[in-house]
Specification:
Length: 548
Amino acid sequence: MTDFPAPRHAGDLLTQCLAAQGVERVFCIPGESFLAALDGLYDADIDVVVARQEGGAAMMAEATGKLTGRPGIAFVTRGPGATNASAGVHVAFQDSTPMILFVGQVASDQRDREAFQEVDYRAMFGPLAKWVAQIDRADRIPEYVSHAFHVAQTGRPGPVVLALPEDMLSGPAEGTPVPAATLPSGAAADRDIAAVIDRLSRAERPLVIAGGGGWSAQAATDLGAFADTMGLPVGASFRCQDYLDNRHANYVGDVGIGINPALAQTVRDADVILALGARLGEMTTSGYTLLTPPVTRQSLIHIHADPSEIGRVYRPELAVVGQPGPVVGQLRAAATARAGGTWLSDARAAYEDWQVPRKTPGALKMEQVVAHLNDVLPDDAILTNGAGNYSAWLHRYYRYRGWRTQLAPTSGSMGYGLPAAIAAKLQHPDREVICLAGDGCFQMVSQEFGTACEQGANIIVMISDNGMYGTIRMHQQRTYPGRPSGTRLKNPDFAALARAYDGFGATVTTTADFAPALAEARSAGRPAILHLRIDPSALSPKLILDDG
């Protein structure tokens, strides 16, 4: 274990504890409530990234957790800082991402008086985090930090929130950092693996739905080999499309919003479904209709890291507790060949057909934009997005070729794509990072483009501008046709905004203009924005707005 110098104050000790856990980067908005921690970071070999808003800092930390499998770290100040950061904590919770948020707190002698910016963090973050605590004694910092790293990474991964009273943090401290967290293997019992293989071997129409937290690049490789050996079609749960190379013969599409109708029918017709790490939430089950609770028509095998998640909505016929990463390795080792008929090939053919671009209105067509990205981006390019109808083209037509090439919130949080892209570029500076955002989605976090420029994170942000909150407009058109209300947007010149930050900016109005604009952005050597002016009538790949 590394020897650390005697801490000058508790902020020093906290920083040493983070270094002992292997933390290399933290995201923050500075605040007076944790000045001692900032002082401790001054001498630490830890990169400090200053965001523009706490929500952006928290989402950067969450994206780092997704990319590394280790907790992403964010520091924010009390009150408004914490409430702003809660959006990122919610993403981490619903996406099963390891993350730790440190929040400055009022001094101990002022607590429970509604002091300046005081918030009860246990009450506030209780429903959003795996564990919320306050460190009241400096000598217990090593214990709390060690426990936070264990909680965030074990079972179903997720966020932890630790409050830091200002007087505790600035006071004297004695303590020794605890070595990095020791994690359980997450493997399943051999008899459970044998039972899964036996049930799949006897199935006529099996389907794997892969998703959730606790995966890795090795797990993605194991999933492909396991599916290949047993002839299993594999669908990805909502926004988990990079869990298996989409070119793999066993990949049959994403089981999420805007699902391929043929894949939806495959889910309904399956006789055995293996839910491998996926929670089977609302988005993956099309509002709990593809699988009907509490007892599904299909025989359900549910493998999940959290035993309390199994049976929460659906009663499985076979339940297995284990981390999907090690478990899929066990499944690969135990897999045996099975006769599958045309079940797999039919499902794959339906996916291939779904990939053929369908024409939408306007001079600039998003289906062709995404098709071009497929053609020119390297296999390891990372694509990020937040929430909005613009992402439907990406999810339908882009083929993810490797693990963690997709960063998108299963929680459906707007504004996620830009901070996630920044985190991805800082984590992998040698890889291309493309953020797709809608005009509404981008403007929730547009200030973080300044963070990208300051950090030299040369991302490309593609803003799909149709002058409206398109997803809500789509729902209005379906439910209250011809009566738009509260969904229009008056937008700036986004390309000019990029240039104002000394980035690269270009406006694209036709499909023919997109390829040269993208090429110029890729070679610009600075953060870039491509302002894509989209026909407002193209609400989604399937819905055309004919009344404006």
